[in-house]
Amino acid sequence: MDLAQIMGAANAPLKAAQKFMPFIVDTCDRYQINTPIRQLCFLAQVGHESGGLFYTEELASGKAYEGRPDLGNTVPGDGVRFKGRGLIQITGRANYGALSTALGADFIDNPTLLGGRNVNLCTPDQLKYAALSAGWYWNSRNLNAVADKIDIGHSIDDGDNLSQFKLMTRRINGGLNGIADRLDRFKKGVQFFVGMPA
């Protein structure tokens, strides 16, 4: 898999792809993201969420999440403390807590363990958890099953393929923010996955 080309050379320089590659491979193994369509969908979505494997922490302050009980943000300061981090932008005290249990690391007391602003500022542990957190979130929303309904041999731009891709995007984002970029990343990556063993 040529991760830099799938993510787009302008947004995912070779060095960034090389840094993340072993952790993404481990993540895909751990969460059974193990068929061409699952991997393509995962990389298209993660590519958008992380700005092409560059950002591991959202640029906004997180104040917009303050006092959001749906995210488990019930303690003053939770919005900023538990802003989006990781390759899929894990957000909120509740998700950080669930992830802590799943991965056996304390993201409540150490939220920045999920990411250090961008790939160039991350420690190896931050890179590892940024990738694993994306796999955990993907798995917790049952997105392998959604990806399995997409036919990699047909256009993603219409019919059931588009409906399933939109469903996947809603489960990740809560809406369809960035749908054009997510679809574009999928289309650019198809050539690397078509013909691979399922």
Oligomer: single chain
Q: What's the main sheet like?
A: none
Query: Strand-residue fraction?
Result: under 5%
What would the average pLDDT be, to the nearest integer?
92
Radius of gyration: 16 Å
What is the number of beta strands?
0
Helix amount, in percent? 40-55%
* pLDDT < 50 stretches: none
Helix count, per DSSP?
A: 9
Structural class: mainly alpha
Structural shape: globular
- Following the backbone from N to C, one meets helices and strands in this order, namely HHHHHHHHH
Distance from first to last alpha carbon:
14 Å
Structural notes for this entry:
With 198 residues, the chain is mainly alpha-helical. It has a domain at 3-54 and 130-193. 52% of the residues lie in helices and 0% in strands. It contains nine helices and no strands. The chain has helices at residues 3-7, 14-30, 36-49, 78-81, 93-103, 124-140, 143-147, 159-173, 179-193. The protein is globular. The mean pLDDT is 92.
Any chance you could write out the topology, listing elements then pairs?
Layout: H1 3-7, H2 14-30, H3 36-49, H4 78-81, H5 93-103, H6 124-140, H7 143-147, H8 159-173, H9 179-193
Helix pairs in contact: 2-6, 3-9
